[in-house]
Design goal:
The N and C termini lie far apart (60 Å). The protein is mainly α. The chain has 22 helices and no strands. Helix 11 crosses helix 20 and helix 17 runs antiparallel to helix 18.
Length: 453
């Protein structure tokens, strides 16, 4: 179709020396080809002028008809097409919001909000409501996931950790060693040959998850190139194991007494809560800008280093260094950053689910579930055995193990519920410390040890 006269006039109005400096234009593919799941070949290609030409070449009625067809008969037969950006982002954000809300329900709090978001995304794609593949999913993987990590780690002040965590930090490091031992034992005992090369990759990812948390599982899987169906099955198995494991920890802690005094940390918590109630527009805006800057530094580092998958570890390392060097500034950004990171991560979990096949997940999950079960069982046995040998307090061992397997949020919840007030802030700090180191430990152990077993 020929371009309208006003479009030709607009283009001819550009000075010739500016037009000659522009990169050559790619021919626009027919619209129906994009309806069937074709995406731009490279993330570095920006088809700006092709899109401009396409917009100029359609009349209003034709554009409306194409959008309607896109919504009704999407790519891969989905109700919402991959090119229907408004509809798809509405779906992803809605699934993430529902996952966050589910934590207030009995079932959601039991199975974890992350698993709820994954399962709803999985059901939506397999019911052909949203597509299995879409440009929006690439945006989530390439931009939103790296952006969420700095927002999550604004409290990663290692100086404060060393000063306040004390013996709990030692118990946490013991738990990290126990997770490594559990990974080796499970890798020997549980056959995962059906996963091929993904077997050692998912083992390394689960090791990172049980030292830090789910974000480390995702970062390691991304760095090692684990297939999406195995990642979805791994996250599902991981969340079920975590839910059962926390029940075991609370059962073991049921006879441990509450603290009979209020520690000096309570005052700090009160002050921090009061500061978090202040307007958050400015720290939110600054936090987003800082996170984008950290991600840009990590991308520059990745371009400079000839190693695959270093963006997420680079983001983690840069954030920890900055949060330790400028604790007051990043502590000011932390409350709003954590809220934003929760939203972004749940959108990511929705995409993880949407990218998976129910049949593949059902076929893959049992062996991963068994692997994770053996892994955390050995972890708990080693923690309790060596903890007794080194004369650790039982509540330190249980809280450290909780921080290993669940991260800072669950460790804070356990310390608060059990009335261990002096351990609330140290529990949060060791959990954040775990997220800071687990990605590097998982990738290193996977490449150096598991890949050769």
């Amino acid at each position: 179709m020929a371009s309208p006269p006003f479009a030709a006039a607009a283009i001819s109005a550009f000075p010739s020396h500016l037009l000659s400096a522009l990169p050559p234009l790619r021919p626009l593919r027919p619209y129906h080809s994009r309806l069937h799941g074709h995406t731009p070949q490279s993330r570095h290609t920006i088809p700006l002028f092709s899109s401009l030409s396409a917009i100029c070449s359609r009349n209003h009625r034709g554009l409306h008809r194409n959008v309607s067809l896109s919504c009704r008969f999407g790519g891969n037969g989905a109700l919402i097409a991959g090119e229907d950006h408004w509809g798809l982002w509405t779906s992803l954000l809605g699934i993430g919001a529902f996952g966050i809300w589910s934590e207030k329900t009995k079932i959601g709090s039991m199975v974890s909000p992350a698993l709820v978001s994954i399962l709803i995304g999985l059901a939506a794609s397999n019911l052909r409501i949203i597509p299995f593949e879409a440009p929006a999913y690439s945006i989530v993987f390439e931009f939103l996931l790296p952006l969420a990590i700095p927002l999550l780690l604004f409290r990663a002040n290692l100086h404060q950790l060393i000063q306040s965590a004390g013996r709990l930090l030692c118990a946490f490091l013991l738990g990290s060693v126990a997770t490594t031992i559990g990974t080796l034992v499970a890798f020997f005992l549980v056959p995962m040959q059906s996963l091929g090369q993904d077997s050692w990759k998912i083992a390394a990812a689960l090791m990172g998850s049980y030292i830090g948390g789910t974000v480390n599982f995702i970062a390691i899987s991304e760095a090692l190139g684990t297939s999406s169906s195995v990642v979805a099955a791994g996250v599902a198995a991981d969340n079920v194991i975590c839910a059962v494991y926390f029940m075991v920890l609370f059962a073991l802690a049921s006879k441990l007494p509450r603290e009979s005094f209020k520690s000096t940390i309570d005052a700090a918590i009160t002050r921090e809560s009061a500061s978090e109630s202040q307007p958050v527009q400015l720290p939110t805006a600054i936090g987003i800008a800082v996170s984008f800057g950290i991600c840009k530094l990590a991308v520059l580092l990745a371009d400079w280093l000839p190693i695959q998958g270093v963006v997420l570890p680079g983001v983690t390392a840069i954030t920890v260094v900055l949060a330790t060097s400028f604790p007051s500034f990043f502590g000011y950004l932390a409350p709003s950053g954590e809220a934003l990171s929760s939203v972004l991560l749940h959108v990511f979990f929705a995409v993880i689910g949407a990218s998976g096949s129910i049949l593949n997940v059902i076929n893959t999950t049992p062996c991963i579930f068994l692997f994770a079960f053996v892994q955390v069982t050995v972890h708990l046995a080693v923690v309790l055995g060596l903890g007794k040998l080194f004369q650790f307090d039982m509540k330190l061992l249980l809280l450290a193990s909780n921080a290993n397997v669940g991260g800072p949020t669950t460790a804070c919840g356990m310390a608060t519920t059990k009335g261990w007030d002096s351990l609330i802030v140290p529990g949060i700090l060791v959990g954040i410390f775990g997220i800071s180191i687990a990605t590097f430990l998982g990738i290193g152990f996977g490449l150096a040890v598991l890949r050769h077993m």
